[in-house]
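Sequence in, structure out.
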Amino acid sequence: MNKHCTIGERLIEAREKMGLTLHDISQRTTLPVARLQNFEKDLIDFQNVDVYDLSCLKVYCHQIGLIYDDLVRDVVLKPIDLAAYQKKTLPSVFDIVNWRKVLVTTLILSAAVGLMHFIFSEPSQSPQPIQAHYQTLDQFEL
């Protein structure tokens, strides 16, 4: 292989040397043919490459017998910002909600509902007193 070839030219040369088509590589690796074509056409910007593209290129190199590290030896890769891939913590509900406003609103609504109930409800019928039948000792036979 010529050291002055582009990465895409090296990929094409190695693939053709093995007698494989892009469709064959795609079936073996489940990588889309379009992505493999982008590698061979040098459409990958190695200054802004993402982790997925690098992983796909490593898989492709493995299938055609190239050593990835040798292929990209002269390419200066941008360091990967791992912070972009880490799980971001969301703010707590206690940080977002203004609890004083929630409390005041709840109290006002409760008072309004109680007042509405008092104003618009039917007057209640007070229960009739129970007729008590008192019996005196004189009424009993002893």
